[in-house]
Amino acid sequence: MDLNNKRFINYLLLPVSIVFYLLSNLRRLLYKINLIPVQKFSVPVIVVGNITVGGTGKTPIVISLTKYFERQGKKAGVVSRGYSGSHNLGSLFVDKNTDPSISGDEPLLISIESNSPVVVNKNRAQAVKDLINNYSVDLVISDDGLQHYSMARDVEIAVIDGRRRFGNGFFLPSGPLRESISRLKTVDFIINNGALNPGEFSCELIAKEFVNIKTGERVPVDFFQGKYCHGVAGIGYPQRFFDTLIDLNIKLEPHKFADHFAYKESDLEFDDNHPILMTSKDCVKCRQFANNQMWYLQVEADLGADFLNKLNAKL
């Protein structure tokens, strides 16, 4: 679809976006004036969310936070809606062997990359309750859920994509907004993933190493420099990943898939034997059929000492 057609469709959908805007504000007001109950908890809850659809880099930030609190001697648990997973009823306790088609890819990735217990439930407030009741945790981090107002929270962190920010500024479905941009005035912290703006904390995703999905072999980030490789990304903003690989001087053939794409072995069968490089979120869905040519890029969200100190003070 060319740009002009896309804009035309966006304008056609504006009446629906206006209805979405009104309902979004009404819903938030009903929670604010306590006409709809809010469930509170015995431990602090941190929400890492956004006001737009599409990838902003929340999950690496959640993983980085769990590791930070672990270094502080605190046990953090994580709750998630389990987007793209088939689990629908009650709470699912995720571990490293959970099928990503059931839990969703992001909860499984968090479980693999951290030492934190992870619970998936469409009802996040219930997920928090079940997490507290089954694990000895000092705090809970919600991966997404900024708009899940039935779940009380002590800290709100909104993550913004530094390049795309708020797109065309329209509400769904004409644009990417879930809530008004003014909502950012009410959150505790704004993390800008990939850029720096006044009043926002900058976050950079640091490429650490490549890991072979089948063998577990680890190689430095310059290992594929100058080599022809396939780049595979089924995330909210694939170009960010492709740009990272290009910046590593990799001769890249990019393959873009839909966000949360459920890979089959045939999806990654190419006519050559070049290495296949993907994100860690993609890799958790390819473990069952991985071959020696499949690697994922291990990244780490650098949150900065200033943000972490202020988060600690807020808690």
Count of all domains: 2
Which structural class is indicated by helix and strand composition?
alpha/beta
SSE arrangement, N to C: HHEHEEHHEHEEEEEEHEEHEH
Unreliable segments of 5+ consecutive residues: none
Query: What integer value in Å does the Rg equal?
Result: 20 Å
Tell me the CATH topology of the largest domain.
Rossmann fold
Q: Please tell me the overall pLDDT.
A: 93
The count of helical stretches stands at 9
Q: Work out the strand percent.
A: 15-25%
Model description:
By secondary structure, the protein is of the alpha/beta class. The chain folds into two domains: 3-203 and 303-314, Rossmann fold (3-Layer(aba) Sandwich), CATH 3.40.50; 206-301. It is built from nine helices and 13 strands. The model has no long low-confidence stretch (mean pLDDT 93).
Concise synopsis of the structure shown:
The protein contains nine helices and 13 strands. The protein is α/β, with parallel strands linked by helices and about 325 residues long. It has two domains: about 5-205 and about 305-315, Rossmann fold (3-Layer(aba) Sandwich); about 205-300.
